[in-house]
Structure formats: C-alpha cells, structure tokens
Design brief:
The chain is an alpha/beta fold and 308 residues long. The chain folds into 3 domains: 7-80, Multidrug-efflux Transporter Regulator, Chain: A, Domain 2 (Orthogonal Bundle), CATH 1.10.1660; 91-166, Methionine synthase domain (Methyltransferase, Methionine Synthase (B12-binding Domains), Chain A, domain 1), CATH 1.10.1240; 176-306, Rossmann fold. The chain has helices spanning 9-16, 20-28, 46-54, 65-80, 91-99, 103-115, 120-140, 146-166, 189-200, 214-224, 239-256, 270-275, 285-297, 299-306, and strands at residues 7-8, 35-36, 42-44, 176-182, 204-212, 228-232, 259-263, 280-282. It has a 5-stranded parallel beta sheet, sandwiched between helices. Strands 1-3-2 form a 3-stranded antiparallel beta sheet. β2 and β3 (42-44) form a beta hairpin. The model is unreliable at 57-86 (pLDDT under 50).
Length: 308
C-alpha cells in the first residue's frame, strides 16, 4: 500500500478539521471507509474522504448528528478558504504516474488537491493539462510509445470518473449543455473534462463524445435545444468542408439563441477563429467555467450579452 495513494489518520483528520479520535470512531463504525496496513495502521483513500465530506457523513451505517455537523462546517470552510494547504499535483508527478498507468496515485493527487480547495478548472488547466501535453509531445517525437500514450490517456479518463463521483455537484440549474469534439478528432479527455466541469456548475450535460460531425451536432441541437454548446478540437481535418458545415450549424444555433464555445489547439489560430466565429474561443477551462457560472446565474442577460 503506497503512502502516496492513501491518507493517514492524521492527514484525514487535518483535511476534515477534526481530531484523530473522531476519525477512528467514524472508521470503526464504517461511516468512513478505511483499510489497515500489515502493521494495523488505518489508511484512507482520498476519494472516500471526499465522498464522506460531500455526503455529510453518510456511510455504510446511519448518519450521526456529530458527523453531519462537523462535515458541513468543513464543506463551508473548503468553499470559502481555498487552499492554504501545501497539497498540489505537480505536472512531473502526474506525468510519471500517468505513463505508468498508476491510476490510484493520480486519483489521490487530484482528489487531494480538490479537497484542499483547488478548483476543477485549475486542476485541468494546470498539472493535468501540462502532463498530458508533455506526453503528447514526447509521443510525437518518438520518445514515448503508442502504448504508453494510450495507457496515460485511459488512466486520465478513469481518474476523471473517480473525480466526478467525489466532486460536490449543486442542484441542477435547469440549463442543458452539449459537449463533443469535432469530426476525426478522437481525443476524448478534453470532452470529459468539459463534462465534469459543467456538471460541477449545475448544468445537465449531454456528452456526444469525440469524432462528432457538425451535421450530427446540428441534429442533436435541434432535438434538445441546449443553452450551451462546447466543441473541442485538437486537430482540424478537411478544413474547407468543416468551415462549410460549421456555417450551417451556426445559423441554426443562432436562431435558437444558444451559446457556442470552441476550445482546444485546433481552434487556437487567429485565422481559424475568424473562419469559425463563436461566442467564446476558450483558451482555458477557467474561461469556460466563468462563462458557465455566468449563464447559470443570469441566463437571459448573459446570453443576450454573449450573442451581441
């Protein structure tokens, strides 16, 4: 059992702002899941700690008043005091764990950082993005194998599913978002990051996944009438056809008054952006997060401003 993947009783107590005695009591009563080392010491998975915190002390047994009150206090503390803690996920550590397929370690690093107040946007824009970008560059240069690149990508996707389970999701705001990547782009990770980020802002998300033609996106948009459409692109192929199909798609979207966000390296060039006009050409997940929150809090005004 690697110490990098698990939290000690002391670390767990510090995260939740309680005594080690409380941690022991909750672990003994199975309110907080734990495992024991060969030497009899308790160890806790960061995702289990996050889930316990998010659910207000709801475990295998029944909810206890003391557990609920302490956890609720700590939830507010994390929300209002983001990160005096030293916990962070470094790109180098994530890089090494990702190419080795050490999902539990990557999960522990990201969940730990999230518990300490790092936003999802900061995690996605920071260590995770930098680690995956380096992996892509090394693969392109022939210094990493295809297998290593695939292992890293699958590990990152699996970790996102874990992170999604522990992220505190507010009540749905009644708004719908659709996310996907462009045709012939099979990079799934940016789409999944977008999905998790929007859900954390209260959006209902329809995830079409990678390799989605604009014609198919237009059809789904007409059926579901979303307020927000997010399209990512790592690379654009058959540019002239894509521009033509996007133009038709955008006409339909404008009549519905939906907001379009385009992101990724494929849309980063200024000339490309002129050929693919959008409400927002996002350079970061932070920009997407800010827009999503704005649309959710002031949907009519924000949409009107965005579409001007």
């Amino acid at each position: 059992m690697s110490s990098e993947r698990w939290l000690t009783s002391k670390q767990t107590a510090q995260l939740l702002g309680v005594s080690e005695a409380s941690i022991k009591r909750w672990a003994d009563s199975e309110l907080l899941q734990s495992q024991k080392t060969v030497g009899g010491h308790r160890r806790f998975r960061p995702e289990d700690v996050a889930l316990f915190q998010r659910e207000g002390g709801l475990g295998v047994g029944r909810r206890t008043p003391r557990a609920v009150s302490v956890v609720e206090i700590q939830k507010k503390r994390h929300a209002t005091s983001p990160s005096k803690a030293k916990s962070s996920a470094s790109p180098q550590t994530l890089f090494e764990a990702l190419i080795a397929g050490r999902g539990e370690e990557v999960s522990a690093l990201l969940v730990n950082a999230y518990l300490h107040g790092h936003s999802l946007a900061a995690l996605f824009d920071g260590a995770l993005s930098k680690a995956m970008r380096r992996i892509g560059e090394l693969w392109y240069e022939g210094e990493l194998t295809v297998a290593q690149e695939h292992i890293a990508t699958r590990t990152a996707l699996d970790v996102l599913h874990t992170l999604r389970r522990v992220v505190e999701v507010p009540e749905e705001n009644g708004l719908l978002a659709i996310c996907c990547s462009v045709e012939a782009d099979f990079h799934e990770l940016p789409v999944q990051c977008t999905h998790v980020l929007l859900e954390s802002a209260g959006w209902r998300v329809l995830n079409l996944g990678p390799n989605t033609p604009f014609s198919a996106l237009a059809e789904v948009t007409s059926q579901h009438l979303p307020q927000l459409i997010c399209v990512s692109s790592t690379i654009l192929t058959n540019l002239d056809r894509a521009v033509s199909e996007y133009g038709e798609f955008r006409k339909n979207v404008q009549s519905m008054k939906a907001v379009i966000v385009l992101g990724g390296a494929g849309f980063s060039n200024i000339t490309i952006r002129k050929r693919f006009p959008a409400t927002l050409h996002a350079d970061s997940f932070r920009q997407l997060s800010e827009l999503a929150v704005l649309l959710a809090t002031q949907p009519k005004r924000a949409q009107a401003d965005a579409l001007r």
